[in-house]
Amino acid sequence: MTQLNWQDIFIINRFSTSRWDSGFNNELYFQIIFIEDGSGRINLDGKVTAFKSRDIFIFNKNEVPQIKIHETTTFIIFKFTDLLFSSKVSLPDKQYWLRRSEFILNHPKRRFQEALKSIEERDLIWRILFFIRKENTNKEQYHLQIIANMVSTILSVLARNITETNPESSGYSQSKKKERIDEIYAYIRYNIYDSSMLKISVIAKHFHITSSTLSNYFKKETGNSLHNYILLYKLEIAKDRLLNSDFTVSQIALQLGFTDESHLTRIFKKYCESTPKQYKDAHVSADK
């Protein structure tokens, strides 16, 4: 396995400026922008939100924020490149980063807004940031492993905050129903790589209801069966990895709990009307 330069995969930038330069990176997978101090506004596709000291924002590769700075601002930016997906890369906590980032970026509750609401968790993240910067500057023994572990903690805290974000709703009863469905969605997305945790009996036990009650409730509220939803979500991850990684179909099948490559290919063709290879080739050709 190839050991690439740390800077090829994960980049930490810290700078102060009174004028934002987006510096779009074609190979960027996603980025986290930490506002150390300063203030201003962020515009994303016409939606505007103000930022202030100690705010945190997450943007995927297709989201290019336009930032208007009101007072000189110090940014700390974590950039995760597409090489995070590479099967040739050996990186501490790589799989954990990959799974947590997919959870965050694909979560139905994700909105363009400041990523944290809890004061305690904001304090925790900024303390971790201090030690990441220290390790990255001093580069003492095991500093890469220590940084990787601390980044994993930050991603976990951000993922938990997305899960706990209260959805907008009209009416108490409707809100409680939406809350429960979102809890089921969150459980599935969190455990999507562990097939043993996705058995209907196990999910039902987690929510303290019977399997039949869970299946009927999910079908009634979403119009989709639980089994089908899990399958479709796995296929969305498979599509993303086909287009953004060099994982083989066989590797993706193994990662997502399919029996083998032929099993994934058969399911993929049934729901997507093409094989994984055809899907990848078609999108690669369209991008040229």
UniProtKB/TrEMBL annotation:
SUPFAM superfamilies membership: Homeodomain-like, Regulatory protein AraC
Domain HTH araC/xylS-type: 182-282
InterPro entries per the UniProt record, alphabetical: Homeodomain-like_sf (IPR009057), HTH-like (IPR037923), HTH_AraC (IPR018060), HTH_AraC-typ_CS (IPR018062)
Highest taxon of source: Bacteria
Alphabetized GO MF terms: DNA-binding transcription factor activity; sequence-specific DNA binding
Pfam family, one: HTH_18
Keywords: DNA-binding, Transcription, Transcription regulation
Protein name: AraC family transcriptional regulator
Species annotation: Leeuwenhoekiella marinoflava
